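Thread: "does anyone have the structure for this chain?"

Original post by V.I.:
We have the sequence but no experimental structure in hand. Need at least a predicted one for the grant figures.
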Amino acid sequence: MALLDRDEIIRSLQRLGQLAAAEGEVIRLVAVGGAVMVLGFNARLSTRDVDALILAPSDIGRVRNWVKKVADEQGWPDDWLNDGAKGFLIGVSAGPILLEVPGIVVQRPLRASHCLQ
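Reply from O.Q.:
Generated one for you, tokens below.
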């Protein structure tokens, strides 16, 4: 997969929010890794995927279905947004909001959050 730049990440997250809102849901994510560096700090121009902890809705399967729909629309792999980093994170608390549009709120972790080494 090609790298995702800031605009592509924002557009894909907005689309994800549209899908959730159409079903009366709001997705709450804590983004980590490269996506935070792109969206939150402008420290990178792009990232390979969006690593995030899914806080809501509690039915993660629904979120994965919406993620897959966006992937299909964009011609991307199904894991363009994934929670693969969750096993490396301890006590992550949601911090400042990176993106808030109908159907989705994306935050970055508080700086006091810890990563497993």
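V.I.: this helps a lot. The helical segments are 6-22, 34-39, 60-74.
O.Q.: and Residues 4-115 form one domain.
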